Amino acid sequence: MTNPKTILVTGGAGYVGSHCVAELLDRGHRVVVFDNLRQGHAAAVPPEAAFVQADLADPEALARVFAQWRFDAVFHFAALSVVGESMRDPHAYLHGNTVTSLNLIRATVEAGVRKLVFSSTANLFGSPSRMPIDEDEAIDPGSPYGESKFMIERALHWADRCHGLRSACLRYFNAAGAHPNGRIGEDHSPETHLIPLVLDAAAGKRPHIEIFGDDYATPDGTCVRDYIHVCDLADAHLRVLDALEERSVRYNLGNGTGYSVREVIDAVERITGNRVPVVVGPRRPGDLPVLIASSERIRRDLGWQPRFPGLDAIIGGAWAWRCAHPQGYRTLAKAAE
């Protein structure tokens, strides 16, 4: 690389953040990870990256980081991110996610950094009028989590208008899969994402997988969702850096193809060779039959294309990582002892 950049990655020890860190390092950039490890894992941070364990709620910690390094851009992943939890404790999300992001935006502006890439969400679109969901869809957040992300997008809008901080907001639904290097993958506690939950059922770590309703207006009666490989998300985050040379951007991200809950279960059984016990339960309030994000605009503008678009590739990588790390990142920690 002829022009390596120095990038601050908040939440860089988390799932999507750690894959973005890996992509940045692979392309020759210098990376500083800022993470409080509430949801992230120290073992997910590669030794090539500098690591600062601190919280965005601490403005002094942010000031020290910006004083120590001169950053070319900030990638912002750090957030509370469980939709169901946000419905039970909306204040934690509406206050916590927003205030910590405002702290980061202010520190970024005061340090003279003029590029910020923000991990937003397609949960901005709680009542979409059409599928796939494109950037022209009316914003109507489906949860306090989605609302907090929209509040941050608006703060970034005004940071651009008032201070010239250009931002890229990337909205996506279901990140999935694991890095091909086999070192990093998905490890949440508690786990709420469908693919790792089904993999756990296939591995005998949970007695069954529950399908929440099988009477939707879809081909097999179960909800259809858009799954996008986490490395494809990381690639999109890097591509928008060049776009920020000219203007702020907002992009929806998805494969453009949806897979039902039963299709995910069938794929897991096919890839693992193990049966997945299934229990059908009642619908969950608020679940829509189909959610698919359009990515036509970023494909057209930046030439982004998913490198791992197929469900089998996504699940296969996730299964390989879980087989190699049966206790998640605790497997790595024990190996290092």
From TrEMBL:
Domain NAD-dependent epimerase/dehydratase: 7-254
Entry superkingdom: Bacteria
Required cofactor names: NAD(+)
TM region positions: none
GO MF annotation: an example: UDP-glucose 4-epimerase activity
Name of the featured protein: UDP-glucose 4-epimerase
Homology family: Belongs to the NAD(P)-dependent epimerase/dehydratase family.
Subunit structure: Homodimer.
Organism of this sequence: Azospirillum doebereinerae
EC number: 5.1.3.2
Cross-referenced PANTHER family: UDP-ARABINOSE 4-EPIMERASE 1 (PTHR43725:SF53), UDP-GLUCOSE 4-EPIMERASE (PTHR43725)
InterPro entries in the record: Epimerase_deHydtase, NAD(P)-bd_dom_sf, UDP_G4E
Pathway assignment: Carbohydrate metabolism; galactose metabolism
One Pfam family hit: Epimerase
Keywords: Carbohydrate metabolism, Isomerase, NAD
Broad enzyme group: isomerase
Reactions that this protein is recorded to catalyse: UDP-alpha-D-glucose = UDP-alpha-D-galactose
GO biological process terms, semicolon-separated: galactose catabolic process via UDP-galactose, Leloir pathway
